[in-house]
Specification:
By secondary structure, the chain is mainly beta. It has one domain. The protein contains 1 helix and 15 strands; from the N terminus they run αβββββββββββββββ. Strands 1, 3, 4, 5, 7, 8, 9, 10, 11, 12, 13 and 14 form a 12-stranded antiparallel beta sheet that branches. A 3-stranded antiparallel beta sheet has the order 6-2-15, with no helix packed on it. A hairpin with a 2-residue loop joins strand 10 and strand 11.
């Protein structure tokens, strides 16, 4: 996250919003899904993924945070899953999450994952190789000149052809704001986190939901 800008004013100092975004959103509305099949996962089901320049935006103030990269480790076993149908089928968990060089202009903030693991859910049927998914139980903390905690869920899709988990939405909730946030991020603000996590070549996972 290289630039953190406030929508209309450009008040640069609130890297706070940045972290918030990391945390993630309120539980999403789910479509109908009956079964999810996972294949291509390595023995033991341990997967790793990385994302370049993930961003988080405070939807209330317009403040935006960018990190140079993000990484995640999870457990996704091959198999046929039905528990949780027809709303959300759990196919794995995220056990580690990290972000690197998160900045608001030249001011660096540290973003860390909160309580783990996070649940990886399939929330709709696969269409054109893309499967709707969500991560629930997400939490993250931002520390630096400004502090904040983000909790909730994020939504997006898993694209089989590129083995990419694309996070595009979710209604995040901010709490525990403190320090020099300068109004760029506030308790109760909604945050959007966007990132494309590409799985390592050792984990060519494919998800098919019907």
């Amino acid at each position: 996250m290289r630039k953190f800008t406030k929508a209309a004013t450009g008040t640069a100092v609130t890297g706070a919003a940045l972290i918030a975004a990391i945390g993630l959103a309120a539980a999403p509305a789910f479509a109908s899904v009956n079964q999810a099949v996972v294949s291509g996962s390595p023995s033991g089901g341990v997967i790793t993924a990385t994302a370049t320049t993930p961003t988080l935006t405070d939807n209330t103030t317009g403040a935006k945070l960018t990190c140079t990269s993000a990484s995640a480790t999870g457990s996704v076993l091959n198999g046929v899953y039905t528990a949780g149908a027809p709303t959300a089928i759990k196919v794995g968990t995220i056990t580690k999450a990290a972000w690197s060089t998160c900045k608001l202009n030249s001011i660096t903030f540290t973003v860390t994952a909160g309580t783990l693991p996070w649940n990886l859910l399939v929330t709709g049927v696969t269409a054109s190789g893309s499967t709707p998914v969500s991560l629930t139980g997400v939490s993250a903390k931002l520390t630096g000149l400004c502090t904040a905690t983000i909790t909730g869920s994020v939504t997006g899709s898993f694209v089989n052809s590129s083995h990419t988990l694309s996070i595009t939405g979710g209604s995040l909730s901010v709490s525990g704001v403190g320090g020099l946030c300068l109004g760029l991020i506030n308790n109760g603000d909604s945050i959007t986190y966007k990132a494309n996590y590409v799985l390592a070549s050792t984990a060519p996972v494919v998800v098919t939901a019907t």
